[in-house]
């Protein structure tokens, strides 16, 4: 059952596959079949996913350009008693995806928020990076402007925890070159197309990775993991 005793309604945050459709959880399928509606970024994309699993639910669009009125509209329906699931196009909702204003508005109205565990490119890239996982900072997408990107990198250059970024394939060479110039020649990992047919993880120093992707045309979705300041000794000690 989706309803919870003493709670008017629930907004479920449901992770969806980032590549392989088999990565969806049994609980995610159960929730998607039970809710009154599914909130998503792209109704066409989510519609294909639901159809694959023979799930047929009303779809409500919510994306970066929806505006505050859309969050109020959906939260009002939740407050009135509807139970819904929020999904992103791929991975865990709210992780570099829209949804935060909606969750805040729903909480303000007394709606229970329940997050399901599931696929996340961030966690997969970290686990396979070979870098320290005891502490990390997720920085998401930095600016597409070089000067602002380098300024953001400089701001985290003294952090000792592992740094994790998302990046567009169109800016991978520039990002790696900026990271090398600002952070120095640290150990790093570049993961692309996680859980998809052409999944690949490249590991090495930033200088090596920058040279590789300067020659190789980047394709797919990328997660970049970079050792924190002073992690060289940690890495060598773990070998």
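-> sequence recovered:
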């Amino acid at each position: 059952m989706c309803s919870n005793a003493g709670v008017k309604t629930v907004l479920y945050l449901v992770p969806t596959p980032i590549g392989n459709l088999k990565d969806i959880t049994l609980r995610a399928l159960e929730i998607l079949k039970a809710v009154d509606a599914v909130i998503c970024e792209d109704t066409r994309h989510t519609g294909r996913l639901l159809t694959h699993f023979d799930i047929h639910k009303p779809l409500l669009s919510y994306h970066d350009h929806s505006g505050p009125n859309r969050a109020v509209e959906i939260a009002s329906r939740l407050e009135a008693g509807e139970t819904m699931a929020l999904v992103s196009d791929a991975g865990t909702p709210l992780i570099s995806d829209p949804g935060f204003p909606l969750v805040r508005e729903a909480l303000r109205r007394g709606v229970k928020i329940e997050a399901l565990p599931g696929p996340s490119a961030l966690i997969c890239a970290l686990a396979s990076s070979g870098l320290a996982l005891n502490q990390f900072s997720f920085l998401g997408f930095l600016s597409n402007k070089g000067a602002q990107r380098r300024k953001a990198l400089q701001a985290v250059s003294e952090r000792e925890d592992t740094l994790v970024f998302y990046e567009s394939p169109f800016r991978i060479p520039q990002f790696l070159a900026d990271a090398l110039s600002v952070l120095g020649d640290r150990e790093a990992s570049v993961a692309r197309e996680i859980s998809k047919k052409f999944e690949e993880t490249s590991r090495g120093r930033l200088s090596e990775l920058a040279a590789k992707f300067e020659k190789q045309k980047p394709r797919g979705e990328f997660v970049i993991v970079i050792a924190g300041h002073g992690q060289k000794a940690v890495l060598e000690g773990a070998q």
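The first strand starts at residue 10 and ends at 13.
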